[in-house]
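[INFO] parsing input record for DUF192 domain-containing protein
[DEBUG] input buffer:
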Amino acid sequence: MEVAATPRQRQRGLMHRELLGKDEGMLMIFPEPQEVSLWMLNTRLPLDVGFFDRHGVLQSVMSMQPDGGEQLYHSPPGTLYALEMNRGWFDHYALLPGSRLKLPYAMTGE
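[DEBUG] output buffer:
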């Protein structure tokens, strides 16, 4: 799992990737809970993104299609983490809103 914690890392995201392994992806960590917007500029793979609050609780999952960055995908307010994975990953593991993401203390401070 790659971590994108800086603005530059989050902006680059999973651009220019040809493939992701079955359980590979990117966890984006934002500086504070907020509504975030993601796009698929230069992203060649269809992805699902899960939006998590500051407690690591999954708020929603969206499917994102490569489109050259034309569409913006907006999270619910209060998003602190966005987990981008291969399309279908959240369904495969039966992760639904209310599921919890467990992170090391260093990433959460809790």
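[INFO] Strands lie at 2-4, 25-34, 37-38, 47-52, 58-64, 73-74, 79-86.
[INFO] shutting down worker
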